[in-house]
Write a structure and sequence with these properties.
148 residues, alpha/beta, five-stranded mixed beta sheet, 6 helices
Length: 148
């Protein structure tokens, strides 16, 4: 009999593959929104459609030596979670009550978007230094768990 991954590991492996499309010079992040064991949308971090990628024009945050978790407004890219939400919206896919599988813990901006989008749980592979995001998810009652 073939050994199959459980659902969490299956979806996380897909998030890792999605992250491989990232154009970010600092961190490759992939995410997917799942409902009832079905993938609704995926997203990876990178520049908006049609714009030059960071590898082509450089990374202002890297040049300014800005630590992770700070000054997101200086980044030309969108986060993986934002792109997953946007892809669902563009294609008319409802994501309320879905779960987010993501290679990294979301930032506070993404946390607020995920709360308002009705995402009910997060399954994550890696942490991220954003204490406000953790407070937002806790206050909103969103389940957060890590898998390896």
């Amino acid at each position: 009999m073939v050994e199959r991954p459980d659902w969490d590991h299956y979806f996380m492996e897909i998030a890792v593959v999605v992250a491989s499309r990232s154009t970010c010079m600092r961190r490759q992040v992939g995410s997917l929104l799942v409902f009832n064991k079905r993938i609704l949308a995926t997203g990876y971090n990178g520049a908006p459609v049609g714009l030059n990628h960071c590898g082509e024009v450089g990374c202002l945050r890297q040049e300014m030596q800005i630590p992770s978790g700070e000054r997101h407004e200086l980044c030309r890219g969108l986060h993986a979670e934002q792109n997953a939400i946007i892809q669902a919206a563009v294609h008319g896919v409802a994501i309320r009550d879905s779960a987010l599988y993501c290679t990294h813990y979301p930032c506070a901006v993404c946390a607020k978007m995920l709360v308002n989008a009705g995402v009910t749980s997060l399954i994550l592979a890696d942490n991220y230094p954003d204490s406000l995001a953790k407070k937002i998810f806790s206050e909103a009652g969103i389940e957060v768990r890590f898998i390896v």
